[in-house]
Each structure stands twice: as C-alpha cells, then as structure tokens.
Amino acid sequence: MTATTEHPSVGPLLRSWRQRRHLSQLELGTEAGVTTRHLSFVETGRARPSREMVLHLAEVLDVPLRERNHLLVAAGFAPTFRESPLDDPSFAVVRTALDQVLAGHEPYPAIVVDRQWQLVASNLAAFVLVEDVAPELLEPPVNVLRVSMHPHGLAPRIRNLGEWAGHVLDRLRRQALITGDAEVGALEEELRGLLSEQGIDETRAGGEHAGDVAMPMLLESAKGPLALITTIATFGTALDITLAELALEAFLPADAATAEILREYAADLA
C-alpha cells in the first residue's frame, strides 16, 4: 500500500486566516465585496474559489506571500510568488540599496534579518553589538535574537534584560500570530527557555522607562554604557517572498553619551 498525505483544502485555510484576523464572515465579506453566503460556501468546501478570488481574499486578510502560495496550491493552482536567493541577479539593485542604507546609517549600528531573525547583512558599526560574544554564536547562520538573549551572547551586557526581553518577546509573539509561522513560534519558546535558564523573568515596560517614548536596550560596552532604541523597516511592495521577509533594524542613540561613544567606535574602525 502507498501512504497518502492529507493536505488541507483552501476553505479551512481561509477560515483559519479569517479567524486569526478576528473577522466575522460578514466583516470579511463586506471588506472583500463578497456575499457572506458565498464566503461560507468557500470555507466549507461547497464552492471552489477561482485563482483571482483566492488572491483577493488573501490580500484583504493580509496573508504573507509565502502563505498565499500555500493557499493557491490548496485550491489547486500553481504558486504565484517566487522565492529567490539573495545572490540572484534580480536582487542586484536591492543589495546595492541595502548596502547604501547600512553604510549611510553609520556611525550607528544597523542590520538586515530574514523572517526568522537570521542575520543577512550588517554595517561595520554593528560590531559593537557583538563584543565578547562567544565565537560559536557567530557561526552562520547567526540568529540575532538568540545571540542577544544567550548567556554567552549579549545577555550579560544588557542591564535591563528582563524588561527589554519582555518587549522583544511580545513583538515575536505578535509576529508568529500575524504570519502563522511555526518556526517563529518555536524561536519564541527557545528564547523563553534561555531566559529561564538564566533566572530572568521577562517584564513589561514600566518603572524606570515608564515615561520614555521607546524601550531602550541598555548595553554595556568597552567604552561605556549605551542606550539604544531601534526602528524596523520592510519592503512594503515586494512581490518576491525573500524580499518581503527581509527587515532592516536600525539602532539609534537614546542619549548624547551613546551617540558620542558610537562615534568613537566608528573612528577606531576608520
């Protein structure tokens, strides 16, 4: 006998995305311009949606490109969105743009990561973030969140580790919920385990930073304490899965002393 693998049909998958977005059939139907009756038939398998309908509902539900391909395959269609390696010739312009942004952000650190927070690129200023990090943690692929919370990584140098970790894990949890990415969920659990091993309880923003406009990472460095806040940018109009899943995280000084120390580091690297 030949074993067969059951693949989910498109109806239940669409229903799970609708529920993930906390929308009723009426709300989704209204936003998508589809009758509740037809939407119900699609979700229960009584009606087979066209390729255009699958893509339209996925757009309204803000389904990630990777998962839109899964929806198309489940509906019996070929995937639409390609996933190109970063060294593909079509990425030449993107790589050049990223290099320019990374260099332009110096003397402040900046990195590019993929959907699983693995390092794709960085500027020279980012080396301040890996002082005293165990070499094995910097072997590719480098997961920047694992490095930040590992006892042989940044964790011993982050003065507000519990508070900062609570902020990062909240963000990671939201990412897992929004994208449905099981690997991101597994990373969240791994990081919680690393914190637990160190006796660190994640906490929410409050206390010392209750009045701040952003949660800083308070990091010890060889030249003195740093207070860093971050911004994250993505390619909003990407049609390639790889490009859509890239994010650029830029670190900014939260005070004048941090800005001066980062300029000193930059001068040393010049």
Task: Explain how this protein is built.
- The chain is of the alpha+beta class and 270 residues long.
- Helix content is 44%, strand content 11%.
- The protein contains 11 helices and 5 strands; from the N terminus they run ααααααββαααββαβα.
- Strands 2-1-5-4-3 form a 5-stranded antiparallel sheet.
- The longest helix has 19 residues.
Q: What is this entry, summarized?
A:
This protein has eleven helices and five strands; from the N terminus they run ααααααββαααββαβα.
Globally, the shape reads: elongated
Counting DSSP H or I runs of 4 or more residues, the number of helices is 11
What does the oligomeric state look like here? single chain
Helix-and-strand structural type? alpha+beta
Average pLDDT value? 92
Q: Any idea what the radius of gyration is?
A: 22 Å
Uncertain regions: pLDDT < 50 for 5+ in a row?
A: 1-5
Helix content: 40-55%
Query: Could you spell the SSE succession in H and E letters?
Result: HHHHHHEEHHHEEHEH
Give the N-to-C terminal Cα separation.
67 Å
State the strand order across the main sheet. 2-1-5-4-3
Tell me what portion of residues adopts beta-strand conformation: 5-15%
Question: How many strands appear in the DSSP assignment?
Answer: 5
Largest sheet: 5 strands, antiparallel
